[in-house]
Design brief:
heterodimer, A: alpha/beta, globular, B: Spore Coat Polysaccharide Biosynthesis Protein SpsA, Chain A, Rossmann fold, 2 domains, five-stranded parallel beta sheet, 21 strands, about 35% helix, about 15% strand, disordered C terminus
């Protein structure tokens, strides 16, 4: 694959791209105004969480509690001009360092420039978990084994990152069907698509490209190529030289994208339970359509937003009710790999 | 005589202290060796934490880098101290800081008291050992290993390669027969004393300083020198992954560990509160009957999962390359081309006779024809043609994966989207049955004139010829049966029997009702008319122009019945 002159050229180009990403991140650090910097409390070996959020006051308490319990020691969060009290909520947490910015989310690579800076500055040598506010990481044995047990296992395996599939969870009826009072989103979003994920490898960076799930089925049946990317590598033993290229879907250097086995075996992987389809999505989609901050080519996704705003029903007879990680493993959506 | 425990510690010292206390309180004196690389402040804390227990001693410290002689040296130092200071010790148990006794200490003491002269140490000759990983087996003893495997991997590997290239061989000292085995042993005072006071020890130690991972071979080899009564098994449960790295036990292994016949387990996750709490409690544990097989199976399964995966599953952490299972689906499935054009009720027969799910044309151009015409099939597969065609391979492997336990069959033809053909051709699970040329029958039956359908038939014939050529390639792994239309009609019952043999060999009822073949009287003339108009129908075989199917228009009976 990476042989010959072509491979060399590609390596040089990717290296350049990574340097540009890092330079951008260093430059964009000026966007960030510190609200609460408690990063002095970070100890060597701590597992760190990175987030970029906007108006997520409802989801954050659960998100923080879940990942705190798994063993994230410190959260480094960028608040992109929230108006719903997110900032106050976060700055009150003793294990959160918070920065604020009013700059454009889209122009900052959907927040990745800011997070890359924070990771460059604080993440080096740590296992870093980068999430969206509507993602909940689970992995094999997560109820009984901490994230540190997992990262320790990955370290012994020489695995630098953990791959995780984003699984869209949805309610049984229309998405507006449940009251949106915060708390455990999994109590309300219990259904998912178990076996309609399309997998391919993108040759340039050797990363997987997985699409499918409920959103592809319900919203992108006519233009599947535009369906959301579901593969992520959210947990990485970070080095300041690393950079996420596109959300947490792909990384540079490209070797980090090999979070999958090509020899027929299986590596350990997890799942990001995606809690996007809470009732708030209806108003939010209307707003996002106007802001146009979420996709490179926003116009292409207008109908997607329209359908989200129209209170869709994602549940169908073929939907599966979520019961736990063992079920997801049996269905082949995550794997213990060799982890006993 | 009592049991003494040597503990080699380097991390999680609070847990090590807890375990040392447990041993000591239960009447086992302990000598702790602490890795030289551990900060002195941590040592002080450990010493202070155990200061109330006179039976816990600390040996002089050396650095214990993995794979080097330091570990053996540490063991020797601590064991020497134990034998010298504690004359009452009859057996010495070597453990690490992350070992945890998983049965009552008194059980172990009783066991050793019953076998006062037995050394429990795994000791296997290099020729017989099956668990070393990475090819270094005998070579552990015949090459030199001056570089640290963990820190200087390139130098390590390079130097090994160089020595192999130069055919360099160290001479194994006279009389030594290399043996390997688990690092964790339990030796009698007599054997241990004999090893430590071996007349040739200086020379032997010099030799072992350059042996790879000597902690798995030093005592294991020397025990064979001192004429001991060896029981070649370790009393410590430790499991390794397929690359030889130790597995860790967590809280959720409690049940498993209780089934182990071993007395001590390694390695224990330092945060496994439940394990430490349970096994270090004073309450007498009533243990279930040991079942080592259960543990072995679990770990063997993990190795299989890691190295072989689950065939037919393509996911986040498994995407095999082509030669490694990238073209294999999860289970056998049937593809049928041409059958539905000839038979009335072919799909129901297919489903019934093969105990299978019989889909329509899954790869039809306009939409996916699932068996019961569902809009969304099992697992959330959509009937959208664009979604399917975006990644046909994922579509098919998902379908087969989602329906494990139920054979899938579907119709295929030259009118369908053909992109999946290259995948199914190389998939050993594909069973492909083709009646070539049968695609023309519906055109004839449609009542359109030859002039109207000629171009269509010519195009589809080309498509089908391409498919047949693809299936004829040497790299084809699918099981393919092709009949020309003419061949097929000579005895239609036999191919149908062949299908059942292939897809449902244990079908209870072979002679059940076969589907009804549709009348073909006049089709021969239709083909002749095609020829007359300048198109050459070749895939149908040698189809007689005056073919009359009045006989075949009856329900078919199977050969057994007619014969």
């Amino acid at each position: 694959m990476d042989q010959g002159l072509g491979g060399l050229l590609r390596a040089v180009r990717l290296r350049h791209r990574r340097q540009v990403l890092l330079a951008r991140a260093v430059h964009r650090r000026r966007h960030l105004a510190v609200v609460a910097d408690r990063s002095a409390a970070i100890r060597p070996g701590d597992i760190l969480g990175f987030l970029c959020v906007r108006n997520e006051a409802e989801r954050l308490p659960f998100l923080l509690a879940h990942h705190r319990k798994l063993g994230v020691c410190h959260f480094l969060i960028v608040d992109n001009a929230s108006t719903d009290g997110t900032c106050e909520l976060l700055s009150a947490q003793t294990d959160v360092s918070l920065w604020q910015t009013g700059a454009s989310y889209k122009a900052s690579r959907f927040g990745m420039d800011w997070l890359t800076w924070l990771m460059l500055r604080h993440g080096h040598g740590h296992w870093c978990l980068t999430l969206d506010a509507d993602e909940i990481l689970i992995y094999p044995h997560w109820q009984t084994r901490s994230l540190r047990a997992l990262t320790d296992w990955l370290d012994t395996q020489g695995q630098v990152g953990l791959g995780a599939l984003t699984v869209d969870l949805y309610p049984q009826g229309p998405v507006s069907g449940y009251d949106d009072a915060g708390g455990d989103p999994l109590a309300r979003l219990q259904w998912f698509d178990s076996g309609n994920y399309q997998v391919q490898v993108q040759p340039r960076m050797q990363n997987l490209w997985i699409q499918g799930g409920a959103r592809a089925r319900a919203f992108f049946a006519d233009q599947p190529r535009r369906a959301p990317t579901l593969n992520k590598i959210p947990l990485v033993r970070w080095h300041w030289r690393y950079a996420y290229v596109n959300s947490t879907h792909a990384l540079l250097p490209a070797r980090l994208n090999r979070a999958y086995a090509t020899d027929g075996g299986m590596l350990t992987s997890g799942v990001l339970l995606h809690t996007k389809f809470l009732p708030g999505i209806i108003d939010r989609s209307a707003e996002e359509k106007l802001r146009g901050e979420h996709f490179g080519d926003g116009a292409q996704y207008a109908s997607y937003y329209d359908r989200l705003t129209a209170d869709p029903v994602l549940h169908c007879a073929a939907s599966t009710r979520y019961t736990g990680w063992r079920q997801l493993e049996a269905l082949g959506l995550m794997s213990r790999g060799g982890w006993v | 005589m009592t049991l003494g425990v040597v503990m080699l510690c380097h991390t999680a010292l609070d847990r090590a202290a807890q375990v040392a206390r447990h041993w000591a309180v239960n009447g086992c004196p302990v000598v702790i060796h602490l890795d030289r690389r551990v900060p002195d402040s941590d040592q002080k804390a450990l010493v202070a934490a155990l200061a109330d227990l006179p039976d816990i001693r600390f040996s002089p410290r050396v650095a214990c880098e993995w794979g080097t002689f330091g570990l053996v040296e540490a063991t020797i130092l601590a064991a020497t101290q134990m034998l010298a200071d504690l004359p009452g010790v009859g057996h010495v148990y070597l453990a690490s800081g992350s070992c945890l006794p998983i049965r009552r200490v008194s059980d172990l003491q009783d066991h050793l008291a019953a076998h006062p002269d037995t050394d429990f140490i795994e000791s296997v000759t290099t020729a017989d050992v099956g668990w070393t990983v990475g090819g270094l087996n005998k070579e552990r003893f015949t090459l030199r290993f001056p570089f640290a495997w963990k820190r200087q991997r390139r130098l390590f590997d390079g130097y090994v390669t160089l020595q192999r290239l130069l055919r360099f061989q160290r001479r194994i000292p006279d009389g030594l027969v290399p043996h390997l085995g688990s690092q964790w042993w339990c030796l009698t005072r007599r054997s241990l004393t004999a090893i430590l006071s071996h007349p040739d020890r200086g020379r032997i130690d010099r030799y072992f300083r350059r042996v790879w991972i000597p902690d798995e071979s030093y005592f294991q080899t020397l025990i064979r020198q001192v004429g001991a009564r060896v029981e070649s098994r370790s009393l410590t449960l430790s499991k390794f992954d397929f690359q030889g790295r130790p597995h860790v036990f967590y809280d959720d292994h409690l049940h498993l560990l209780r089934h182990s016949p071993a007395y001590v387990a390694r390695k224990i996750w330092p945060e496994a509160d439940l394990l430490y709490r349970t096994f270090l409690s004073d309450e007498a544990n009533s243990l279930p009957t040991p079942n080592a097989g259960k543990i072995d199976r679990l770990f063997a399964k993990a190795v299989e999962r890691r190295t072989k995966g689950r065939p037919g599953l393509f996911m986040q952490s498994r995407f095999p390359a082509k030669g490694r299972g990238g073209n294999v689906s999860a289970a056998p499935y049937g593809i049928f081309a041409g059958f539905s054009a000839l038979f009335d009720g072919f799909q129901p027969w297919l489903a019934r006779a093969n105990d299978a799910r019989a889909h329509g044309h899954l790869f039809a151009r306009d939409r996916v024809e699932f068996a019961s015409n569902e809009a969304v099939f099992k697992g959330g597969l959509s009937d959208s043609a664009p979604l399917r065609d975006y990644n046909p391979r994922s579509f098919l492997t998902n379908l087969i994966w989602n329906t494990r336990g139920e054979t899938q069959c579907f119709l295929f033809g030259p009118g369908d989207v053909q992109d999946i053909a290259s995948f199914v051709a190389t998939d050993p699970n594909a069973r492909i049955f083709i009646i070539s040329g049968a695609f023309a029958v519906p055109f004839w039956r449609s009542g359109l004139t030859v002039a109207e359908v000629r171009a269509h038939i010519a195009r589809l014939q080309k498509v089908e010829a391409d498919l047949l050529a693809l299936l004829d390639q040497p790299e084809t792994k699918a099981k393919v049966r092709v009949w020309t239309l003419a061949e097929f009609l000579e005895n239609p019952a036999e191919p149908l029997e062949a299908i059942v043999d292939e897809l449902n060999p244990r079908a209870p009822d072979r002679t059940g009702a076969l589907p009804r073949i549709l009348p073909l009287t006049g089709f021969g003339a239709f083909l002749q008319e095609l020829r007359n108009q300048g198109m050459q129908p070749v895939l149908m075989g040698d189809f007689p122009a005056d073919f009359d199917t009045s006989a075949e228009s009856q329900p078919l009976s199977s050969p057994q019945k007619t014969g």
